[in-house]
Amino acid sequence: MNFHSPLFTFLLLVVVAPSEPSDRFLSDVNQLRRQYALEYNVSDMHELIWSNELVEILKPLDWYRAWPEARKTWRYMYFNSSVIPTKDIEGQLILFFAKTQSQQKEYIENSKEVLERSAGALELLNPHQKFFGCGPKTEGDSKLTVCLMGPSGDFKLFDTSGQSPERFLEDVNGVRRTYANQFNVSNMHELIWNENLVNTAKALDLNAHKWSEARITWRYLFIKTYNTSSKYIEKEIEEEFLKLNETEKQSYIDKYVGSSLGKPELLNPHHRFMGCAQRIGKILCLLGTEGGLTLFDTSLESNAKPGSQCYRNYENVNGLCVATKQEKLTIRINQIREKYAKLYNVPNMHQLIWSEDLLKFSNDGNFMIDPPQMGKTMRHVYLPKFEYEEYFDFFIESRIENNFISKDPIERNSFFASNVQTSLGDLELLIPLQKSIACEYMRIERDKKEYVCVIGPSGKPKMFNVDTASVTTHVAASNCSARYKSLDGLCVPENPTDVSYFGNSSDFLNDTWKESLVTLASSLNCSGNLTCANKTWRYTTDMVYTGITEKIDEEVDYYLTEMSQDEFLEFLKSGETHHVGHLELLNPMQTSIGCVEKLLWDFTVFCLLGDEGNFKMWDLKNVESKAGSSCAPGYENDDGLCSIPEAKSIVETTTEESTTGASTTSSAPKKSNVETTTKESTTEETTTEESTTGVSTTSSAPSKRRLLPKSSKKHSARNNKKTGGK
């Protein structure tokens, strides 16, 4: 490099750097970054934007003390404010770029200065930094200008040989699109760079014979250099694999399926993420989230349309399945959730899925009036537009670290308690039991809209522990909800296409479904009191099917641990005039249920339970009775639950009188594909009930459905409390 080129022109402009740097100073720093980006073909050198937030972070820092906050979400450099910085900065850069590649690598990866303090002038060339803020400090009689740069806490320098992982990713996606169109691949997905895979690649022991983590959530390959064009990648794939006949291809796959196929690994259409790390003498690339090997039909006989079978929230862009704008946002949030789940061994951090249900609510939302379900089955966080589009990760992680993680336990508890009734801000994105998200512009004032993310189904959040004891005793993704599985630190749905904010009634029921109650629920508009209830049924609302077991656990845990016995008994007594929340679902005398979704302003699931009009709670002091020992006639003890035995009827016809004189006939719903228990009926039974509405309804009950499979794990609020959960 010619160090007398215009590359250093900016330094000549900074004649005297003021203690409060001017806009011109920032402009000159960006010009320096631009020149290096052009010189070394750096594809991701970002313009630095002035950040008042970094300035505020800098102000209280004591120059004479260590800065533990540094190297997490920001780094720093400094220079003497009273002298021309040209000579010092230019000297540092000349000295570094005069080193060999191996010497540069040694300095960046092993230098104590870089790892524990600052890389000096080189900090100005970290391509991943996007924000810049400076202020004055004093060292003896000297006045210093200290500049903070974020969002990266790690020092990263571009490949000084001119090679780029970002360009390599771009070339790989170009190859995937080419083959998708050439071979009519219907589900070839664009690869997105994933820092969690990068960190995994960095930590793997290259001397290990086999990696136990491999072929579960990712596969791998080695490359020699990032400086590989798409044409060269195609050439290697052609020589290694595509030129083989079908028998030879199968033999090749059988031989390497347990390790790595090499370049053909790049052809797995199901992979959506890639992350690479420089290792000794080579580069290790991981591709996920598929651990199995899937290759497309290379016979050229496929008639499928390229990009016609994309993953949920992906769209066809010239034959390649590309994530939508909403999906890219969700992916970035989930990467943050995965990062913290692994860092703190969070046992129940669930993957967020973009929700069309919540999007409907967001489209109709008016935050000038508090939505009724906010704080019950959903929560929210404001996301400034410019953050959402480009700088999301920095702002989120920076504020989470500064406002919560870095605080002591008392301060963390105080922050949580002060904001839990409204919004926890960015921390809302880390609540483990949330599973659905949607973001949209919503009106918060008469003439003002904000970009708001609505998250559910938890309305009363519990945060994971960040103390050492929790990290050492928990295992990430070890306590997932039913129909979720552990995958690389997150609880992910077994079938993402089935996930919705409201969920499915068949995921939820443990009582006999009654269509007459569904019909009746559809016609009612009940408030908090029971004026619309009658002697044969009660109701509950402010709920969704998704996560109902956790919701019940939370309420029971609250009632049994936060209330005194007298307070709890008084609360139960209020059941004479009001419904008692989700405890209604635990009324032992109820035998049937029917629910309906209220999608307008209520935006909730409303359930009627029968055939008991009074709320009855089991005796909390009774330790002698055995579960399921006092079942009603016609019911038998089934592992603690009073259930209709297989030999008897569970098909039921119910007639209720209506003041309208209308007669409604309803058949049982079809068997759900997620049912866990089905019992066949052999006889029929008819029941007649009087209704305050007078509707005459005939209904056939479906097969009995159980709340959870016996083998399913469920979250326990009581257990979470014992292990220190908020």
From TrEMBL:
Disordered: annotated segments: 652-726
Does Signal appear among the keywords? yes
Spans of biased composition, class Basic residues? 703-726
Q: Where is the composition biased (Low complexity)?
A: 652-668, 689-702
Superkingdom, taxonomy of origin: Eukaryota
Signal peptide interval = 1-19
The name this protein carries in UniProt is Uncharacterized protein
- Protein's organism: Caenorhabditis remanei (Caenorhabditis vulgaris)
- State the taxonomy lineage: Eukaryota, Metazoa, Ecdysozoa, Nematoda, Chromadorea
